[in-house]
Amino acid sequence: DATPALLERAKNRARRLGVIDRFQTLEAELPEDFGRLGEADLIWAGNSLHHLGDQRAALAGFAGLLRPGGTVALVEGGLPTRRLPRDIGIGQPGLEARMGAAAATRFEHMRSELPGAKRETEDWSALFTAVGLVPQGTRSFLLDLPAPLSRPARDHVVASITREREVLGELLTAEDSAVLDRLLDPEDREGLHHRPDVHLLTARTVHLGRRDTP
Ligand SMILES: C[S@@+](CC[C@H](N)C(=O)[O-])C[C@H]1O[C@@H](n2cnc3c(N)ncnc32)[C@H](O)[C@@H]1O
Question: Which residues on neighbouring strands pair with residue 201, listed in sequence order?
Fold first, then answer.
């Protein structure tokens, strides 16, 4: 990863799980640093391939690092997260769906500005085949934390909506922005800090491709 804070977080997690003795991180900016990555049996790219302008070329780069029998795991796609009911009793119903549409616009803008940006049909199985890997299937993992949320899960929801409020800024209507301000106000009884209907429901999808043994 190119972000030291994220690598530090991963390291702390490995320490907590007792696997720090076989865990290392490498600060690297792709695609420039492909040559520094070394060989691998498993390459796990968690929601990161889409940050590279030429996803096909990057996947070919990963394929080139795999030892025979090795696997590339791509976490891409899945489902948009839901944290609130469709109608929360304030503003227009469907707030999270509109936030999702704004996020899709922002995502497209982010991709268009990447160096060497290329449009690619995101058929990961077809792309695995195109770079010489054998598709091994796709699996989705559900996170389903119903209301009422624990304090840490509620804190996560507040943090994620705070970030979305910041980055989606002008892509949201003034009315939706005002509703988000209310939701984020710790004093507001209808806000995220207090309302009983806050939940956390999402799915992440992992796509696998393997390099055949000769
Ligand atoms: C959405 S986050 C995913 C983080 C983490 N892999 C996960 O699964 O939760 C995207 C990550 O891609 C990293 N990233 C973006 N562009 C990159 C690049 N050109 N080279 C290396 N890492 C990059 C960012 O630093 C960020 O940590």
Answer: 82, 144
Query: Which residue minimizes the CA distance to atom 11 of ligand 1?
Result: 48
Instruction: For ligand 1, say whether the CB of 3 is within 6 Å of any of its atoms.
Output: yes
CA distance 45 to 175: 37
27 alpha-carbon distance from chain centroid: 19
Q: How far is the CA of 180 from the centre of ligand 1 (A)?
A: 27
Quick: pLDDT tens for 143-196: 999 999 999 999 999 999 999 999 998 999 999 999 999 999 999 999 999 999
Separation of 47 CA from ligand 1 center, angstroms? 7
Could you tell me the pTM of the whole model? 0.93
Q: In testing the pocket of ligand 1, which one of 48, 113, 167 has its CB within 8 Å of the most ligand atoms?
A: 48
Atom of ligand 1 nearest to the CA of 3: 25
Question: Which is nearest to 120 in space by CA: 68, 59, 74, 176?
Answer: 59
Residue with tokens 């979305």: 164
